[in-house]
Amino acid sequence: PVSVGMSLDIASIDTISEINMDYTATIFLRQRWTDERLCFDGNKSLSLDGRLVEMLWVPDTFIVDSKKSFLHDITVDNRLIRIYPNGTVLYALRITTTVACSMDLTKYPMDKQTCTLQLESCKT
């Protein structure tokens, strides 16, 4: 198994829909892992074009309860790939996602809702 570190920043919560029981948010997701096959000599990291991500192994992370999501690609893919001499890979991307959130509105307008944003990885 590969140990993958992750961090996530919520850039914005764009909409909350009581009718559809969901919310839409834009997030920045960063993942970091080490792949010894990518070690190289030097003391500086390499930043790669986001289109090269298809040539690398990347974690199969997904957003639980996502109804729809998309990666931003204006004017180019909003992805960052940085490889360090020891083989550590930093992979960052910007995602907008609409996520299901089961809301209890029986006490409206005095209600309080808690919506989660969970990420998981497929296991094979």
UniProtKB/TrEMBL annotation:
Taxonomic superkingdom: Eukaryota
**Compartmental location:** Synaptic cell membrane
State the GO CC annotations: synaptic membrane
The main location class comes to membrane
**Is Cell membrane among this UniProt entry's keywords?**
no
This protein's UniProt keywords: Ion channel, Ion transport, Membrane, Synapse, Transport
Under Gene Ontology molecular function, one entry of this record is: transmembrane signaling receptor activity
User: What are the Neurotransmitter-gated ion-channel ligand-binding domain coordinates in residue numbering?
Assistant: 1-122
Question: What does the record say about its membrane topology?
Answer: Multi-pass membrane protein
**What protein family is recorded?**
Belongs to the ligand-gated ion channel (TC 1.A.9) family.
The protein, known as:
GBRP protein
Source species = Fregata magnificens (Magnificent frigatebird)
Its ancestry begins with: Eukaryota, Metazoa, Chordata, Craniata, Vertebrata
Gene from which the chain derives: Gabrp_0
